[in-house]
Predict the 3D structure of the following.
Amino acid sequence: MMESRISLITLGVRNLELERGFYESLGWSGTQPDPTICFFQANGLVFGLWTELGGYGAPGIELAYNVRSPEEVVGLLEEAVAAGGTLVRAAAVMDWGGTSGAFADPEGYVWEVAHNPGWSIGSDGSVTM
Amino acid sequence: MMESRISLITLGVRNLELERGFYESLGWSGTQPDPTICFFQANGLVFGLWTELGGYGAPGIELAYNVRSPEEVVGLLEEAVAAGGTLVRAAAVMDWGGTSGAFADPEGYVWEVAHNPGWSIGSDGSVTM
């Protein structure tokens, strides 16, 4: 069971400073946990700009669905494959400390499925950094 | 001023029935206002699958930001251009009854800016169909 919600939308960017500056000119406020990525808290989800997106995912944009435990990552990937999706990356512990895997929907759009111990998920599914 | 929120994420699809079925197999529930599009209510935003996306926008995915009045569409497009974005479509009344225009960010990602009289926007920016 996948709740109908989206946790993170990430745009692959070449010039992070330029892109971050554009959204900040419009009033958004970003934070950079490292030099490759900038996160903006949005309405119950996070919007990201990342210089290292690529090699998997829909061209330029990746969606992510965050779950409440590392075990749920594995379970949801299995459900997605059973529903007709394709496994893109098996669940694994990532260097940023969370657990992540990915599936593609029938037309190839990739969803990362992640457990991030640093982000909280509200009862309504909203994600807060 | 653009609030840091996202109203709609639309994936361009070839086989709407297949794609809708995949997300419904995972537990989502879609509605089709017409045969070309399927909307799913998500966490304060709407997720769409559309067979006619194309010709503009990031490959395969378009983001949208909904505003509370038709006049705000024009104003936000002007602000985006002033911030370094590019006008993609000027504000116009659409055949579905709303007002819509679009800008691209500095790396070409397109945001539709729309006023949809049929969707409500909460005080926190959440969009409900």
In short: Chain B is about 20% helix and 40% strand. The mean pLDDT of chain B is 89.
